[in-house]
Amino acid sequence: MPRDNMASLIQRVARQARITFRSPAGPTFGENLHRLQQLLDEVRAEDLHLAPRGPSAAAAAGGGLPWAGVVPPVSYMHICETESFSMGVFLLRSGACIPLHDHPGMNGMLKVLYGTLRIACMDTLPPAAAAPPPAAGPCHRALFRSRQHYTPASPPCLLSPHTDNLHQIDAVDGPAAFLDILAPPYDPQHGRDCHYYRLLEGPPPGAGAEQPGLPREVWLMETPQASDFWCGGEPYPGPRVCL
Hints:
The structure is a single chain. This protein is α+β, with helices and mostly antiparallel strands. The chain has a domain at about 70-205 and about 220-235: Jelly Rolls. It contains three helices and ten strands, in the order H-H-H-E-E-E-E-E-E-E-E-E-E. Strands 1, 2, 3, 4, 5, 6, 7, 8, 9 and 10 form a ten-stranded mixed beta sheet that branches. A hairpin with a 4-residue loop joins strand 1 (about 75-80) and strand 2 (about 85-90). Helix 1 packs antiparallel against helix 2 (about 30-40). Residues about 1-5 have low confidence and may be disordered.
């Protein structure tokens, strides 16, 4: 059955995000965040005029050299952005991975639109007296909290400045897409740059069927962006959002 009010749904999501993240330290933040989570949980791929697929060849142009003409593993559809939040859609090819990365001082919400994602989540921990394992770069303590599968039937995956702020996202058994809200947006000039990490001991966050003993403390090494990961750009085909 067609859902004729879907244009208003994504508009309402954006408006609620603006209300929620305008005052993240305010007394009504928890209530507003819950309302935003409820709205986001309603969104489906068809609401944004999306059909299951991987990033298209058109996205390669957004990746720039040296990948021009090559389909990127991940592409991004920008929907809207304000000073307090950004919203868009990430599309992952089958087997694609968004490597382990952080969101400094940011809140985030992720809602799967199609496909299956395996999401590993971690918290940063204060420095410890114990020395990290030998490594070639800066090391950080973290708490490997969880690794779960998310589908369109799953509730949104949430992160805060202090909880689940680092995550790795893997597409499982086919292409996948998710609606992403970050608040505030990345902004290197204000200390909100994206950093990538590698687990120093044990299997990578996305490897294997199980990660035993979670939650557990781990050591992470900061790394450059992986050479086989980049993000192209695609036009957003869904209902227009006005703020």
